[in-house]
Amino acid sequence: MAFAGINWFKYSSPASFYPVAGKMIPWVASVAVILAVIGLYFSFFVAPTDYQQGEAYRIMFIHVPAAWMSMFIYVVMAGYAAMGLIFNTRLSAMMASSLAPTGALFTFVALWTGALWGKPMWGAWWVWDARLTTELILLFLYIGFMSLEAAIDDPRRASRSSGLLAIVGVVNVPIIYFSVKWWNTLHQGASISFDKAPSMASTMLTAMLLMTFAFWMYTIAMVLYRVRCEILERERHSEWVMALVEERK
Length: 249
Known about the structure:
The chain is mainly α. It has helices spanning 14-46, 60-87, 90-122, 130-151, 155-169, 172-182, 202-234, 239-248, and strands spanning 2-3, 6-7.
């Protein structure tokens, strides 16, 4: 398959993808840092104070993008796991494995910042709200994926078993998203929707989107770094890896 003169199938090979990922990391990481700095400035110094929640609402500029990324990463992880199972591609399994730690991190950040916001707003650090509970289940799914993969010595068997768990667990993502519509919950509804105008000031929306793109770029940089480590570990007996190791000595 070639598009715009690029043979994309070529980069499904770990040997071809490894150097490309190495070249992308510094650029993507730099963009992540720049977006994060600008996003934090907008979040804490430009966005106006909320007339109902006061200054405490600013935690949402980290909480909401982290929650979005926790769900998005899981769907992408499950997609790579499915490709690995269907097409038996080594790189797909490595990408799924590399996505899991960052997805777990964002899920934890979403739960932690949600607790920080919930204490002054609800008077409790935690409530068994539908969205909070399903987000907690998402964290357990990430941990289960990583634990199952680590518990099996054979990399291919580990990828198949953890991949099946990821695919089955993806059903939890739409439940998280629609939980505020399906059940009577304490969690507020979506402030940004595809079928209506955002219910927030333009500077708030700008800060939210900047932080989202910063988290997105961070995810790409970390996944590329991790997948390079996975490639070196799983392909360590390949001739090209051994040649690379010898070259670095």
